[in-house]
Amino acid sequence: MLRRHQASAPFSPIDIAGISLWLKADAGVTVSGGFVTAWSDQSGNGNNCSSPNNVEFSSSPYPNLYFGGIDTESEITLHPNIFNGYSALSLFAVWNIEQGDNNGIIGSNNYSNFEITVNVDGDTEQYSSFVRMRNNNYASSINIGGWWFFEEFSLSSLAIDAANENGTMRRNGSTSGVNFDAENAQALQLGQTYKIGRYAEDGGDFFAIFRLAELIVYSGKLNGSQIDQVEGYLNDKYAIY
Question: What is the DSSP code string of 51-87?
Fold first, then answer.
């Protein structure tokens, strides 16, 4: 009697324990009047976003949310479960950074927490990144400069454990050209309000312009094999590299 081979199910980010947020522009997005009114978490945890403000939906070159903060605030508030109190985290993003100088992509309501900002290199006029995971310490940068993202859709990944001072940071599946210093990472405070499209709230900067197709966050540091799996899923889907 012949036995049929049963194909294994394709990998999904929820197959890895510790996923806390999975946002993708091809699912869970509600649009009304030309603007996004809701973006639902696909991780199964119910960590839905709230209070979308001047965020647009685009279908080109694939579904993405457009944060066009050049003239006004353009942001979405993350669920309070995301980033608050994390001592380790892993983050994966497919995005296109179009414009910004010392302006926010992800940030909290003050300068002393996790944040991702975009900056312009004065010599090359290319965009570089600042990524910080800190606790009341302004100097705690994980990434200073370096080309962590491009001016076209690219895949950025970060996995870090502040307690053990180790981790990895990749751009399009490679660490080449990406500056990383795990010794500067610190466990994050509780009780902060994080937003996509925000620098630090008391700084009043809303001017990064970018498109976000997918964002995945884990409340712990993934190992190398797990990072490869998530990056592979995203690259298979978007053909980034």
Answer: EEESEEEE-SSSSEEEEETTSS--EEEPPTTSSTT-S
Helices and strands, counts by H and E, the chain: 1, 16
- Rounded CA gap, 192 and 50, in Å? 15
Distance CA 55, CA 69 (A): 9
The C-alpha atoms of residue 121 and residue 146 are separated, in whole angstroms, by: 9
Asked if the model's pLDDT at residue 139 lies above 80, the reply is: no
Q: How confident is the model at residue 123 (pLDDT cuts 50, 70, 90)?
A: low
Which of 162, 203, 202, 198 shows the shortest CA–CA distance to 182? 162
Single-letter residue type at 106? I
Q: What is the reported pLDDT for 162?
A: 94
Q: Could you count the other beta carbons within 10 Å of the beta carbon of residue 163?
A: 11
Whose CA is closest to 140, among 160, 118, 121, 120? 160
- The answer, yes or no, to whether residue 1 has pLDDT greater than 70, is no
Tokens (6 digits) for 115: 């944040």
CA-to-CA dists, residue 167 to 77, 90, 103, 123, 173, angstroms: 27, 9, 25, 29, 14
DSSP strand E in the chain: where? 19-24, 29-32, 35-39, 50-53, 55-58, 64-68, 75-77, 88-99, 103-107, 115-120, 127-132, 141-144, 154-161, 166-171, 195-196, 209-218
Phi-psi map region of 167: left, alpha, beta (phi>0 left; psi -120 to 50 alpha)? left
- Read off the pTM: 0.93
The domain at 17-238 falls in which architecture? Sandwich (2.60)
Q: What is the pLDDT of residues 154-172, one digit of tens each?
A: 999 999 999 999 999 999 9
The CA angle 27-28-31, to the nearest 5 degrees, is 105
